[in-house]
Amino acid sequence: MWINPRRLFDFRGTPTGPYDWSLTRIQLRGLTTAVAYATTFDNVTVIATESLSKRYPRVTALDRLSVDVGPGVTGLVGANGAGKSTLIKILLGLSPATEGRAEVLGLDVATQGGAIRERVGYMPEHDCLPPDVSATEFVVHMARMSGLPPAAARERTADTLRHVGLYEERYRPIGGYSTGMKQRVKLAQALVHDPQLVFLDEPTNGLDPVGRDEMLGLIRRIHTEFGISVLVTSHLLGELERTCDHVVVVDGGKLLRSSSTTDFTQTTTTLAIEVTDTDEHPDGTSAVREALHARGVETHDGSGLPGAGHILLLTAEGEETYDLVRDVVADLGLGLIRMEQRRHHIAEVFREEQTDGTDVQGVRKEAVGHGS
Ligand SMILES: Nc1ncnc2c1ncn2[C@@H]1O[C@H](COP(=O)(O)OP(=O)(O)OP(=O)(O)O)[C@@H](O)[C@H]1O
Fold this sequence. Notes:
alpha/beta, Rossmann fold, Alpha-Beta Plaits, 3 domains, 6-stranded mixed beta sheet, 4-stranded antiparallel beta sheet, 14 strands, 35% helix, 22% strand, elongated, binds adenosine-5'-triphosphate, ABC_transporter-like_ATP-bd, ATP hydrolysis activity, nucleotide-binding, ATP binding
């Protein structure tokens, strides 16, 4: 009998007993295996596809897609129709590929779909919740469908709903929930059977900026607190850089780019500076710009960039640039709020690649949205 060692404990790390001793011994053996597993898991490929294609009569949804995804939080980004949902359905073993092969957690999607779905949670993109039942009833039902016994299903449901921030409202019918609450129910049912990996299809769809931030925080915690790997899709590049360790970009069913988020957001040689205003210099930014210009240093305005505000950008030539900025700001009697090397935002990397007309694989990118 295979026992998922993570089920020994609830989300707070409390043992989920009571168990009899013989079962505990089996579970402790499982836990030992889990510890060994956790120490080697970092080197494991969680998802691997090889020349994977899916052709519908009138459209090629996936076109010879080869990509490897490791543990952690991975963003799968692409415009509407790029093939993200199609890929997830193939990876779950729910839809056959036309060509190529894929493995999830080392299991073949063509022949081991059932075993994959035991270990993987799935949050679908579209609203698929029954309006007349409560979140508790629905998630308990999904837990029972995953094979949990009644008492464990109820306990896990309560823990999972609390984790996604739906505790007080859990006995109300889902039909009266807001979009954000419905998204949380969908997330809870994907997590309730304690999967090793979850596929989250557009979990921020329809959410306002606050709801989106909360959902992205929750997604990050799924990995950091519970060790569950995540594949999350979005059509917004920008929202993935704070959440994901790795980003895979698809367009027209083809792989556009697969890199760690830090590769996308490398440190640049651009220095960003922000200063205070004073009575003498009510526009401190302009005063600094003019003073630097008088010393032969050109700056440009960063206000069009995400989160930039009153920021001046200039190229750092070395230590001298830092000293010069410090002296100019001090001579003007202004306060220096920040002076830092900027990092790229993912969206800017794509904008730059688009500007010079080239990209990694010669695939068009206009369709990929740029989130804030
Ligand atoms: N069952 C189907 N029959 C025919 N065409 C399909 C089917 N499912 C998807 N497609 C088509 O395949 C392409 C990829 O669709 P897919 O849903 O995978 O994209 P997506 O990236 O998830 O976009 P979205 O976020 O809009 O769902 C689209 O052109 C879509 O119309």
